[in-house]
Each structure stands twice: as C-alpha cells, then as structure tokens.
Amino acid sequence: MPSRLFNSHPDHGIRVPCEVMEAYVRALFLAVGTSEEHAQHMAVTLTANDLRCVFSHGTRQVRSYISEMKNGHTNPRPNVTVVSESEATAILDGDGGLGYFPSHRGTEMAIEKALKVGVSTVTTRNHFHFGAAGNYSRMALASDCIGMALSSHRYRPRPEATVMSASGGSPISIAVPTGEQPPLIMDMSANFIPYDDASFAKFPAAVFKGLGLAAVLQAMGGILAGIWNEGYEFTGEGKGAAPHQGAFIAVFDVRRFADVEMFKREIDRYIGEARATKPLPGHDRAELAGGMEWQWEREHREIGIPMTDDHRDLLEKVGDSVGVLSPFGEFEGSRF
User: Is residue 238 over pLDDT 70?
Assistant: First the structure.
C-alpha cells in the first residue's frame, strides 16, 4: 500500500474532472517553455497518479518542477537521445531535463525489444526526477509483459552519520499482467520505516532490508546507469546540482516463459484468493499491491479526482506564478 501521508483517499475537498486537471497542468508546463509534446506527457502522467490517489507523485510535484525550470536548474526543452543500442539494450541521455521523457521513451524501446528477443533492459542518465517508478512498469502490461523500473540519484554516505546514510530512499516498481483481476503492481521506495534508534530496536529486520534494497538500487539505477559519469551539466541561468538521477528499466515477455493465458489465469486465481481474505486493520477490503490504485482510478475517471483544499491551493499558487488561471473555482459545488 502507498504511504498514508498523501497516498490515500481524502475525506474532504472538491472533485475535479480528469480532463480539466490535464488541461491545467499542460498549461502550466507550456507557460515555462516546455514543448507541446512534453507538456501533454506531464499532464497525462501526473493526472493519472492523482486518479490512483498516488498524490505524492501526481500533480503536487508540479510546484517543484515548474520552479526548477523557471530558475534555470532543469532544462525545460531537453533533447532526449539514444547514446548506444543493441538488440536487447539501450542507453538514453536526458539532456538535463526531467527523467520522465528518457524513461518513457526507454520503456517503449524496452517493450519493443523484449517482444523480439524475450528480455530487454534500458538505462537512462543525465536527468532529474523521473517520478513514480510505476509510471514505467505499468507500460509493459498492455503487451503481456512484466515491467520493472527503478531509479536512484547522486548521494554519498556520510562518515559522521550511521551506515543508514548509504540509503537514499530510491524507488522500485514491478508490474505483472493479469486477466480479470486488478494488475499486480508493487511501487515503493527502499525506506520501509523512518530510521531512528527506537525503530531500529523494535524493527531491526525492516531497517536492514531497507538498507540492502537501497544499496542495490543505487548500484543498478544509479552507478550502472551512469549518474556519476563526468560531464553532465545543464548550463541554464540558475545554479544547482548537475543532473543527478538515473534509471534502470527491464521488460520480460511472459510468453517466453509460460503460456500467457494460463499465466493470467493462475495470477487471477492467486489475486482472487488474496482478495477473499480478511483485510488488514483500518482497511475495508483486502487488496494486494496495486489493487486499491486500480479501484480508485476507475472510480475517479467517472466522478472526478478528489482534491483537498491544500492541494488546490498549491496548484493555484503555481498558476499565479506563471500567469495561468485556475479552473478549480467552478467545482465548488462538488464538495464532499
């Protein structure tokens, strides 16, 4: 399940139609000089996460992205290029922009290659935040493939701190196709619980597992992807760190390992049996990873995205900063 901080269904606010949210976010990105294609991509991607109640990686991210483009920190018009390519692999360069663009293109390439050779891996580098890892793992589902996406960023363990400073909270997502049941989509960070002495004393296994996962993600989504390579610098007017994130994306064609329909039937059986169990305390139904997001997305496409007052205020202030008028006032009558 996602974090309870942002990633749960709000209990108050207004409802905003999906197409209205997309149009507003698109206008915000166009206002800071992004291309039409990239503005539309950000609008669709971030709104989709809001639909799933993954608000931490939805339109709330617009504030930091727009600010960093305005101050010259992030390239608003990156030219994504393929550095090298083989039958089953590729390396993409993000040109100092957001990681959404090379990662999306890289995932498209990985799917195409996997359908030809069975398994494909792609790395991306020279970019900033790539958003939710599930944005990319989900893309493989339509082709009856298993998708995996992970990322990491530049950070160094601090000698004056504990070994937990080697854990950067990097994300990973794995998506498995299904038939009739909700798709199985794990989408999480490497940090299982906030670290302090008390939590370590009570849950040492969770702390060590999080540290182990974070180290592997740094190795694959960071070092292997090339985040420490020299020469990455977006030369905008602002001052800030060089593009510091990378990604590792892999796609596995299910038909190379099992009959697809039989696989889907068995996955459906497993998920169905899990959903028939007792829910965890505080939840009204039992779901595996991705189940709640699947339900929320279907519901909110019909009745609108739930938006709290602080979420609305955040986006309206972004609009004010770039001269884009908010459309949210007309939905006051949809309060819940």
Answer: no
Distance CA 292, CA 245 (A): 29
Distance, CA of 287 to CA of 283 (rounded, Å): 9
Identify the pLDDT of residue 192: 86
Burial class (CB in 10 A: 0-12, 13-18, 19+), 35: middle
Per residue in 9-57, pLDDT (tens digit) is 999 999 999 999 999 999 999 999 999 999 999 999 999 999 999 999 9
Residue 240 has pLDDT above 90, yes or no: no
Q: Check whether residue 40 and residue 150 sit in a common domain.
A: no
> Using 50, 70 and 90 to split pLDDT, how confident is the model at 107?
very high
CA 30 to mean position of chain CA atoms: 21
Is position 237 within any domain? yes
Q: In whole angstroms, what is the distance from residue 123 CA to residue 152 CA?
A: 11
Tokens representing 169? Answer: 């909270």
Q: Which among 62, 98, 131, 61 has a CA at the least distance from the CA of 322?
A: 62
Tokens standing for residue 283: 């939840």
For 254, the domain range is 79-289
Residues near 178 by Cβ (< 8 Å), separated by ≥ 6?
A: 184, 264, 267, 268, 271
Encoded amino acid at 167, one letter: S
Q: What is the number of domains present in the chain? A: 2
Helix, strand, coil in percent for the chain, rounding step 5: 45, 15, 35
Q: How is residue 316 written in tokens? A: 């309206």
Question: Which one is predicted more confidently, 3 or 32?
Answer: 32
pLDDT band of residue 138 (cuts 50, 70, 90) is very high
**50 and 142 fall within a common domain:** no
Structure tokens at 90: 């590729």
How many C-beta atoms lie closer than 10 Å to residue 116's C-beta? 11
Q: Are 4 and 324 in contact (CB under 8 A)?
A: no
Please indicate, yes or no, whether residues 90 and 235 belong to a single structural domain of this protein.
yes
